[in-house]
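Notebook entry, structure prediction.
Reason for the run: the old model in the group folder had no record of what sequence produced it. Starting over properly, with the input documented here first.
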Amino acid sequence: MKINIPQVAKLANLVIKKSEEELLEKQLSSILDYVEKLKKLDTSKTEETSQVTDLENITREDIAKPSLSSDDSISNAKSAYNGLFKVEGILE
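New structure, fully documented this time:
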């Protein structure tokens, strides 16, 4: 199967050197051939799964802890204005 590597690179927004095109065409063709083999497998009796390790996320409830008051939070600031941190501008 002939694959138009410059077109694929353009669609993927990739810069591909001319010297790499032949190698990439062989690799992509090989991948597509393998996908065609996989399509031929009978998976009608295979149960769907999203993962195979049976691992689950362990989560905990968020617990709100008391926070600093506005005055306490800016007490060590180099500069403050009207209860807010004052910082140097970074945009021109």
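Summary: The CA atoms of residues 23 and 82 lie 63 Å apart.
The old model has been moved to the deprecated folder.
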